[in-house]
Amino acid sequence: MALPHDIWVWIRLTIELAAVTTIILIIVSTPIAWWLSRSRRRWKEVVATVVALPLVLPPTVLGYYLLLLLGPGGPGGLIAGLWGGRTLAFTFEGLVIGSVAYSLPFVVQPIRNAFDALGERPLEVAATLRASPWRAFWTVAVPLARPGFLTGAVLGFAHTVGEFGIVLMIGGNIPGQTKVLSVAIYDYVETSQWFEASVLSAGMVVFAFLVILAMNLIDRRGVQSSA
Amino acid sequence: MTDASKIDVSFRGALGRFALNVSFAVPARGVTALFGPSGCGKTTVLRCMAGLQRLADGYCAVNGDVWQDHSSFRPAYKRPVGYVFQEASLFPHLSVQRNLLYGAPETRGITASTIRFDDVIDLLSLKGLLDRTPHKLSGGERQRVAIGRALLSQPRLLLMDEPLSALDRQTKDEVLPFLERLHASLSLPIVYVSHDIAEVERLADHLVLIRAGAVIASGAFDDVRSNPRLPLALANEAAVTLNATVTSYDERYGLATMKVEGGHFVVPMPYTASGSRHYLTVAASNVSLAREPARATTILNILPARIMSTAAANDYETVVLLRLGADGTGCRLLARVTRRSWDDLGLVEDAGVFCQVKGVSLMST
Question: Phi then psi for B118, rounded to 5 degrees?
């Protein structure tokens, strides 16, 4: 028995999706985390709650709303119309948008924690050394929050690799476009191809192990360098 | 309007348990100490001067340049200040060298008043530390780097918030000489917050006394310190510090004779060359007063002086401000005597007396 050649297509798509999603997540999460960490507005916790919702919502619920948003009747359809498409659902782009929404709390939270841990002092020091808030952010806050960024990136990447419900709801199962590993495993089980399912599943377990291990190592390094 | 060579400050606002209401104007040269007990508001004043904290009712002008008034507020990063915090607060992700250069202007327009990198390295003995990271430095080294970093941002005013208080006694003694060198070699005005009179004594030219959010006195250090109507002179550890120059040395007894304004002191000490300069600190509790110069006594220093003013230290003791010399034109001295002795001797203001100084402590300049 051998694994089909298609497996490399699924792996490539999975990694591509996770990589693009992670890059977008870091770009989107950084200003949100900074604002949540520094703002004194009382309703900021409302925003924090909205960001955290995917932690507890069933992926099917999130996927359902995303389907409405991305579909022909929602804003996603309008955007797709710009390049002559009809919908963002069941496309790679739609999958990226869904993954970003779904993994947002996993990236915002560690970055916000890292910004919180800075305290006021390093930024005050930068200000008394004539650094504008913009320069202080890039030269002091971001480098000092590096462990938070690393944790966020690893979590965002891994979480995207492992997602299933959202993909099924808004991505479907289109080979080369939206068929990722987790869906492939589901397909194998559906068709009783146990060997293929167990090889892919074991691969995912190894991957998850490596991710958590990497995270723990990052955390420990963070502890050492701040001691 | 604004005086071109003054630091002019006024801040009002709520501060925890009490109201902050601090105004003072001091010359924009030398070291001005903001002195007072912990929690009296002196750090808040410094933070307001730097623009790190904003009180709506504030005014701050340095050398005629208005940083804050009722209608304008210049943010911290646009004020030409250097700020040294209680903890060194170095950037842990940067080497010592990059910490030092973080605030240094990029344009290399070197003028006569530019504080040069090499000079700062020499002044603070930082040469061997440049490639290290902050967490490999001792507490004293860190604070020296923090001072250097503040200096290299080319400030026009250096603000120091108890820079020694987080250090142990020994490290303090290691850093204090650097501050004295800084004071002596740079023309940069410094505002120095402290609650430690020993530090203030060694550094301050001007003194602003703060209690519970308000200024109770401000002026030249010697004037404020020796004014018997102010709490510094009334405190148990009240003292004055005098500039003294050695005029001769008696090797047989190991005694140096030193000249101060209006008199001479004889001080036991190891050999010291004529002409060398020292600080003599004379505690008020070590000075007693006599109508006549005592003849048979072990006290070496008996100096004629004139009584300037007095104040009650408590129910049974009086603090007396004197000036050395029979004509009362020499330097100031404080004496702490019992009220009974004061009355028994029939002492009055402007009377001539003899000060018997039981001991002095010595510090080289």
Answer: -60, -35
